[in-house]
Amino acid sequence: MEKHATKFTLEKNRIGELFNAFPELNVRQVARAMGINETLMQQYVNGAKRPTYERRMEIERYIHELGRRLAQISLE
Q1: Cβ–Cβ contacts within 10 Å for residue 42, how many?
Q2: CA–CA separation, 6 vs 47, rounded Å?
Q3: Which of 5, 13, 18, 47 is packed most tightly, with the most Cβ within 10 A?
Q4: pLDDT of 41-59, one tens digit each?
Q5: Can you list the domains of the chain with their CATH numbers?
């Protein structure tokens, strides 16, 4: 039983880490843009719920696409 508890505490909340590392990303706006329920996305960020692998990859793809779009901006 103790090993299970230790394993649980070592699991990483990658989505929470992402939003903590980039506080300029607004959780609600990202959720809206992706069509994900805002409360559910906040639960992913807080670690209250764990997204499936597929949902994590969907979020990752969205963030990468956002980065590509931002990199194309020119203010000249």
Answers
A1: 15
A2: 16
A3: 18
A4: 999 999 999 999 999 999 9
A5: 10-71 (1.10.260)
* Cα 45 to Cα 27: distance, rounded to the nearest angstrom: 8
For 25, residues 6+ apart whose C-beta sits below 8 A from its C-beta are 18, 19, 63
pLDDT of residue 6: 43
Does the pLDDT at position 11 exceed 70?
A: no
Q: What's this model's pTM, rounded to 2 decimal places?
A: 0.81
Q: Which two tokens stand for residue 61?
A: 């793809």
For the chain, what is the radius of gyration of the CA atoms? 15
The SS3 of residue 29 is helix
d(C-alpha 31, C-alpha 36), whole Å? 5
CB 18 within 8 A of CB 44: no
